[in-house]
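Hi R.,

Here are the chain sequences for the assembly we discussed:
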Amino acid sequence: MNQDYFAHYLPLIEDEMRRVIGDAPGVYARHYGMLRYHMGWVDAQMQPAVVNGGKRIRPMLCLLACAAVGGAVDDALPAAAAVELLHNFSLIHDDVEDDSPTRRHRPTVWALWGVPQAINAGDAMFTLARLALHGVSAGSATPARALEALAIFDYACLRLTEGQYLDMSFEGRLDVTVDEYLTMIGGKTAALLGASLELGALLGDADQAACGRLAEFGRNLGLAFQMQDDILGIWGDETITGKSAASDILTRKKSLPVVYALANPRVGAELRARYAQPIESEAVPAVLELLAQAGAHEYVSRTAQAAHQAALAALAASGVLVDGNEGGAALLEVAEMLLGRQS
Amino acid sequence: MNQDYFAHYLPLIEDEMRRVIGDAPGVYARHYGMLRYHMGWVDAQMQPAVVNGGKRIRPMLCLLACAAVGGAVDDALPAAAAVELLHNFSLIHDDVEDDSPTRRHRPTVWALWGVPQAINAGDAMFTLARLALHGVSAGSATPARALEALAIFDYACLRLTEGQYLDMSFEGRLDVTVDEYLTMIGGKTAALLGASLELGALLGDADQAACGRLAEFGRNLGLAFQMQDDILGIWGDETITGKSAASDILTRKKSLPVVYALANPRVGAELRARYAQPIESEAVPAVLELLAQAGAHEYVSRTAQAAHQAALAALAASGVLVDGNEGGAALLEVAEMLLGRQS
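And here is the predicted structure of the full complex:
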């Protein structure tokens, strides 16, 4: 049933995003072409392409929230496009900020067109995300509701920049606390997932309580999702994730297992010494051993599980998990899928 | 009288922007501190500072437009803050894109905190500009009007990214046309000035025709302003502009005098040859001679003058230039001041 929703919604989402970005001929062809490239619709020569443009999780959750509260998904479609375009804006800028030359097995926008154009392309994608959301005014949303949707969206954007700030500020530090880490992913990952669900519910005409619960579901899902990602980044199966094993150790990422172990009285000092300089692949087993001694895997699994449970509790409290509510059932399925994933 | 308006409005604008950015203690202190630094409110150690934060032309025009149509300026204050914050977002990213280490005699944000944090700080400033505009809902604006204001603002943002795209794409080219140049400044400079006036008029409760005329006034003022800037960038008096003489020649900027002369049948070929490689200061007189032979100064002065006249015609047509309308008179004064400036 879940798959039916994907099959039905994904083309709608894709069409809406294509409409918003447009294919601007003339002097701006390359400007918008860079955005279309990033979305996976064209290749670097701007010829139509069919490539992996990402999982479109956020817009799916947005539309499912709308359906689950009994709304018409067309009313939430502009918001679905908006949250996915916003996510992609953040990826374009993240790739510049992280100096990442590839994404989804293709060169990143900055790698092809240079950093200055990539920054500006990201700014354009950011703007188009907002303009996509204005589309709700053409549907059944009153001006007051459209305004509320824009405010939810804009505050989520602010949380995103706060989370990104913290994430980058962690790079030079060996004293990041678990609290700081949780604040960081609260902004960088959870805020937009929360907004995706809240917007879907709002535009589906849910009452304030249900909107709040679904936002909470989304935020907790985001936290659990990110911690799961942290686990895969260290202990994931290379043949399944497609990333090199222990990639987060080699890049010395301050993910939760590491942050947790850095504060461990027994292994913290040695881990800090190792993380104070580049880590070669020969040193990975020793780092894994330190993480094991700190019980980092168990701690993060437990914490992710708690966030997962909190997500499910909020979903149940929202009232959508009742017999016959297929949208609600689909939300539950997507949540289980996201947290059971191996890649 | 003009000066009275500046003395009265500037503190209001500054306070509103300070309120929107906030001074976030705790983990985000440095994130918001970078924005406060850029605005000229603190130094690099985040200590209070009094430095030149720019002319605040856009918010002044926004408030004057509101006053000129008989509105209460408090109703336009959130828009005034929004357009100035948006302008400053674009400066933070421009400085990264242009690799500029200083602005207003201080190190730029990227020069102090690195490119990744500067990109993200710009994204935060962009977001705060939008959040500032949401403030109109707390005033007399209906939700429908607030929504209209947000749409005007968001479309201006898109024009800004288009203009910036074109400007950067000119760098490697010697065949930029005058039309392309005009399209570029239409996006990069004129769109936001137009939106500043349109928002002020809209929030001052002007009718659609007056809003349109004032937007047109702003756009043409923007065009004239930019061309004036182009003239000063080549022929400005170093002791007045504070920039080195002929700075736009040394950086090989595709400003209007150069674009015009590049297409000149008599001197174009030689100018293209010179612009195909770095220009040393010894070569500046020869370039100036080519521009003189093409009549570039006269052409740009004439074109700027035409835009200036179009601006004044639109201002007159808006109906605000009547006896006793001090706001209208002040708009006229600001226009004359902007175009008569020597720096």
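The beta strands of chain A are 102-103, 106-107. Chain A touches chain B through 45 residues (CB under 8 Å).

Let me know if anything looks off.

Best,
T.
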